[in-house]
Design brief:
Largest sheet: none
Strand content: under 5%
Oligomer: single chain
Number of helices: 9
Radius of gyration: 16 Å
Structural class: mainly alpha
Order of helices and strands: HHHHHHHHH
Shape: globular
Helix content: 55-70%
Length: about 150
């Protein structure tokens, strides 16, 4: 894979600065950090963003997340490894990431409403929007994820 643009942050520093400010606000929003990274990882899986999958799975591992929960994330609906709050967030993540297909169904919103305060609902929705922007930036410009020598092809 050949990167299309080596340094998007240098090409549009003000826009990237604004995205980073949103990220900082979301980190302070009260949403659990593990939930934030699970949402980011799931959206990145859907969008096929290797750069972001690498980043968020690494963050989750560093925070002590189990390997099995990482492996099972793309099958979370069939797994008992996720809490009701995580399941609501993951359903909302899939609905909003696939918005053109889903239309954000009432059933998924009902799950979110039952588990999250109004402020948390807004922050969760902004989080999902932000990771989708990052995925489009990284996939669109073909950002390469880091590769450990032992994992290289």
């Amino acid at each position: 894979m050949i990167p299309r643009l080596e340094t998007p942050h240098k090409a549009a520093p003000e826009a990237i600065k604004a995205m980073m400010a949103l990220e900082a606000a979301l980190q302070k929003s009260g949403l659990e950090h593990s939930l934030i990274d699970l949402v980011k990882l799931r959206a990145s899986q859907i969008n096929g963003c290797a750069f972001c999958i690498h980043m968020h799975s690494t963050h989750l591992r560093e925070a002590g997340e189990s390997e099995m929960r990482l492996y099972m994330l793309n099958a979370w609906r069939e797994s008992s490894l996720y809490s009701e709050r995580e399941r609501a967030a993951l359903a909302w993540t899939e609905s909003l990431t696939r918005l053109a297909e889903t239309g954000a169904p009432d059933a998924d919103y009902a799950l979110v409403k039952a588990q999250f305060s109004e402020a948390e609902q807004v922050n969760l929705t902004l989080l999902i929007g932000a990771i989708n922007v990052w995925n489009r930036l990284q996939v669109g410009f073909r950002a390469a994820h880091p590769v450990d020598a032992r994992d290289a092809a």
